[in-house]
Specification:
Blueprint lengths: L11 E2 L14 E2 L32 E2 L14 E2 L31 E2 L14 E2 L25 H10 L6
Parallel strand pairs: 1-2, 3-4, 5-6
Length: 169
């Protein structure tokens, strides 16, 4: 092959010193050289792993690693920001529990009188407790005489408050 070495004495093999299977005894290249993948050495070990997690930097996947988060990424190897659902809601913004299907999560319902015509109307109430009081519910001409004793006093206040879900001792 005109390389100055008698064919009888030539040794076939990989003659590229940067190859993983370099053979220093080889005098005749036989195209058998093999090379490490980019980012790895000839043993398959990672050359660049800044965070020492046994995953080469070029193979890292950044993402949320918390399975309870809305943006969880099961392939993530490097932690990133996680996004969580608001309390009482799922990741799509739907109520986790809304038994009466009124669009208000059960955890945020406010019980009370929801009729604006009632004397004990509660504007923040979202769930009727059917405790509304109306002037015609009283025998007395005095609409705040809840106890029907002809006087407006402490007993009336206590009855009124108990109808709104609050009691006093």
């Amino acid at each position: 092959d005109q390389d100055g070495i008698c064919d009888a004495f030539e040794v076939a093999g990989c003659t590229d010193s940067s190859a993983c299977n370099y053979d220093s005894d080889a005098s005749d290249d036989d195209d058998s050289c093999s090379y490490a993948s980019i980012g790895y050495d000839c043993n398959g070990d990672c050359l660049f792993d800044d965070d020492n997690d046994q995953i080469c930097d070029q193979d890292e996947v950044t993402g949320c690693q918390d399975a309870s988060a809305c943006n969880y990424d099961s392939t993530a190897t490097d932690a990133a920001y996680c996004d969580y659902a608001a309390s009482g809601y799922d990741c799509a913004g739907n109520c986790i529990a809304d038994e009466d299907q009124d669009g208000i999560c059960d955890a945020f319902e406010v019980a009370g009188c929801v009729d604006p015509a009632a004397i004990n109307y509660q504007p923040l109430a979202t769930d009727s407790t059917e405790t509304c009081l109306y002037p015609e519910d009283f025998e007395s001409d005095c609409i705040f005489d809840v106890s029907n004793d002809g006087f407006v006093g402490t007993a009336d206040l206590l009855l009124f408050l108990s109808s709104m879900g609050s009691t006093c001792d």
